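Chain and backbone:
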Amino acid sequence: MKFISSLFLCFVLSFLGHIEAFDKVVIWGYKLHTHTHSYVHNAFFRAFEHMGYKVHWFDDNDQTDGFNFSNSLFITAGNQDKKIPIRDDCDYILHNCYNLKYQALLKKGNCILLQVYTDDALCLPNLQKIAPCIYYDFQNQCVYMPWATDLLPHEIEKIKKMIPTTQKERAFHWVGTIGEGKFGNKTEIDGFVKACNENGIAFHFHCPWGKGISIEENIHFTTVSCLSPAIVGQWQRAKGYIPCRIFKNISYGQIGITNSYRVWELFEYKIVYHPDTYQLFYAAKKFLHSGNFNLLYEQMDFVKTKHTYINRIETLLNFFTLVKKRKQQAGKE
């Protein structure tokens, strides 16, 4: 595996000219289980490391005196980047970072912005579509894309082989946040839970904000559930937000189930969809009675080839290369 990863890295380095400018990846902020975005950071960490990069993870509380940050690629998110080193010899991928300290680096082409896809992005001019729900915005040096599964391709293959012998509980395990209000999802989850109760299926809520829930625990709770829907709240459904839960659930071995039209469209209408979560349960139940596991394997392959953090890293680095080339070209004119 090390040899394969090294060959892959060499290919990436030869293809992406700017990548030679950094020799390590530094993730800054949100240590694991401290914030919902920490799981994004962890997924980036695992994918970069798998691809052969040296990866380090710091936050504002770490003492980094003496660490050699030269030639680093930084990945960070707003509100956790107060003490991040700002260096001309480094590149930065910024998510929700609005501090003016990055402006000079943006002008030089040493920064790109990362935003999660919503349909609001489609209102922007001059977007370049790369793939469904993935767009490049060169004017603002921003990539719009959904998150992905936190598993690596070989890990998805391992789970796929275990599916025929996996013992299911008569239960629905939800790992994550259940919230109310404008951005909440409680009403939608309640509809699905009501249908579960009518069918003798227990509902178990696992909040990750206590001791934290590991990837292994999340996989376990998801795989033993008889159903694992990716349910979005009203705001997310209206905005076309793609929850990472759909990629994770499928990669963990569950058929895709959602109340989001945009998610259904992204998966080429091959997952279970209904906008009403109460009815969604019965649509999923009907599908499971069909016993069509070939469709589940097809969905897992779809995630494995298009929606891992390796895919997202390739998208980001390709965009970074194009931004730098445009800056270089503009400087010659």
Remarks:
- Residues 2-148+308-332 form one domain.
- Residues 1-19 have pLDDT under 50 and may be disordered.
